[in-house]
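Human:
If only I could read backbone structure tokens as easily as an amino acid sequence. I am handing you a single protein, as its sequence and its fold in token form. I hope you can help me see how the letters and the tokens relate. Thank you; the sequence and its tokens follow:
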Amino acid sequence: MDDVTRVHTITYGDFFRDFLLENQLCVFSSEITEDWRSRKEWVTNGKPNLEFLSNRFGYAIAPVANCSQAEYNSQVKQDMSVTEFCDYWKSSFQDEKNKTEVLYLKDWHFCKTPFHADVFRSYSWSANICGCKKWLLYPPGQEKYLTDRLGNLAYDVLSDDMYDGKKFPDFDKARKPITVIQREGEVIFVPSGWHHQVMNLEDTISINHNWTNACGIFKMWKHVQSELKKVEQSIADCKDMENWHEQCQMILKASCGINYEEFIEFLDVIARRRLAALSQRTVYSSQQEDNDEKKTLPAGPDFESYVFEEWKKSVDVLNERQERTWADYCRYDLSKIKECLIGVKNDQSFNDLQNLELQSRVDKLLLDIDISNQIK
């Protein structure tokens, strides 16, 4: 048995307390997916139903990675239609000995991923529709021992190179990874910042989803902040150039996928919805203020449903009886958003941008959150 908490039934409140707040790994039993259409339609005799997948999704274009070729710290990518990939998959069954490459349509087929942590330090869940996976996971903080002498994250933690002290001088300080065998129907919850490497032990199809919430939003901010520091260090020799700080933000956007302005926009959108929920009155959305277009939210039970639509989907899946009120969740979200905004406001790189409009937006949002705390 692997060293991980396995969950059969749980309330959302318990999941929130024991796994989200604690940022801890767990695996849900196959009962949670037993009624999914994908487990019935995408699988035949325990194997991927390639005919169905090709007929149903064949024209869709999907990213495909070549597991046999590394490119920088990732894998060589290409686009293929689902039909083309299914045809490749069928042919690989027939010519296994002469196969020169292993293609991977995320998240299908027999392969392994490079060692990584999920985008923006988000949470993720991965449900095995068929097949079996082996996960190697390291909790946050261990990744510093899994970099080479130049500071680059390892590509494959199972490589013999990891034991070469000249290449990976701190590998012997790393703890052993948590190993998880994920079987058909099971769902693994991967917390924020947990680096991992995954191997499909047989032909496998999974459904994955990345997401974050108030429990993880500050981790996301610290990640974006850390990525900017790397950018600034990499072009420190050009610091005398005009608009150097703005250039750093452009590079941050290209390398990380988000910059400070977009992160603030992300916080603003969520905060405005929570503030509207607490006030239960007509508000201006952050993107509509210039056009003076008002948006009125419903009141009463319909209003609560509007705010917590996504949460209630999770609640239904976990068969949870709501223990907190919608207002409690709104206030919790706003408290964590405020924590991020204070971090942004005190960040030297943010202040060096001298973007008065962005600074004003942060100040206004902080003020509105403080005012909302006075609403009972």
Remarks:
- The longest strand covers residues 61-71.
- DSSP finds twelve helices and 15 strands in the chain.
- Confidence is low (pLDDT under 50) at residues 281-323.
- The two ends are 49 Å apart (CA to CA).
